[in-house]
Amino acid sequence: MCGIAGVQSSDQKSVPTVPRISSMSKMLAHRGPDSQGEWSDTSRGVGFAHRRLSIVDLSPHGSQPMQSASKRFVPVYNGEIYNHHQLRAELASSGEKIPWRGNSASETLVECISAWALEKTLQAIVGMFAFAVWDVQREKLSLARDRMGEKPLYYGVPTGILQADGSGG
Q1: Among residues 2, 46, 49, 110, which one is catalytic?
Q2: What are the structural domains of the chain?
Q3: 83/102 Cα distance (integer angstroms)
Q4: Is 112 a catalytic residue?
Q5: Do 98 and 69 touch, CB atoms closer than 8 A?
Q6: Shortest CA distance to 53 belongs to which of 17, 121, 104?
Q7: pLDDT class for 35, splitting at 50, 70, 90?
Q8: Most confident option among 7-16, 52-61, 90-99, 159-168
């Protein structure tokens, strides 16, 4: 089942700190009792939390958030990619030299994004998923979910601060 959460903010007062991300993770504990992970880049105002329910890959190599081998991409992911073994084979046949750490679909996802970019990866993957991925180089957050919307992905954009009297600030 797993659970993911994250925050991106340009407001220095709400920069995600490790305690804030950990608090988000605790709220998702019921979705993933097997392990948890947090990642943040406070200088960029972005952070992720992940709660893991280990079903397919039981090893710690599937723990998240994880970075691509190039260290450029950091995803947090929930779901299953049915064709991830095929995608690994495609990466290998195209000459990509990826130092695989484990056998998780999460690692397949991040290395496909690293090798092919997000659009081609989204066209290639088959499954049920929701994820956020931070591009460290471009300082860009992308969100994606499966075509049928089987895995939920909620996001919010603050529009202003409400005063105690309900007026905008």
Answers
A1: 2
A2: 3-145 (3.60.20.10)
A3: 16
A4: no
A5: yes
A6: 104
A7: low
A8: 90-99
